[in-house]
Amino acid sequence: MKKSLIHTCLVALCCAPCVLSLAQAADKGPAEITLESTIDGNSKPKPSAFPHGQHQTLQECSACHHSKDAEGKKIDYVEGQKIEKCETCHNTKEVTMSAKVNTFKKAAHKQCKTCHKNTDPKLAKCSVCHK
Fold first, then answer.
1. Which of 109, 98, 61 lies closest to 81 in space, CA to CA?
2. Domains in the chain: ranges and CATH
3. Which residues 6+ apart lie within 8 Å of 87 measured at CB?
4. 92-111 as b/e, with b when 16 or more CB fall inside 10 Å?
5. How far apart are CA 122 and CA 19, in angstroms?
6. More confident residue, 96 or 11
7. How confident is residue 42, by pLDDT bands cut at 50, 70 and 90?
8. pLDDT confidence of 112, banded at 50, 70, 90?
9. pTM of the predicted model, to two decimals?
């Protein structure tokens, strides 16, 4: 009985770091996300399948996420900040936004395609994200 209790405690101590890291990863958003515009709707919106969990293993949150100040200027992501939907700011109703990124589609294409082209040009094809 005593050996069994000791073994159980040792296993629990060994597993604790793994369980904690999984819990922390779970706090960083869903594994899969469907990205699609709801504010600047096209006649045929083309949703994008986004493997969020896979991207988290490849880069830091700040590679994609950011915020803006009162004047509409981009502010780098700070750990723990509230993550808003991209189109909260990247939409044609937001008058302070640059025309290059004033829609969710433009912002996503600029961000995602640039990274994909730099990583592996095959990843920049439309069909990779738009199934």
1. 61
2. 58-79+86-131 (3.90.10.10)
3. 37, 38, 39, 40, 103, 104
4. eebeebeeebbbbbbbbbee
5. 36
6. 96
7. low
8. very high
9. 0.71
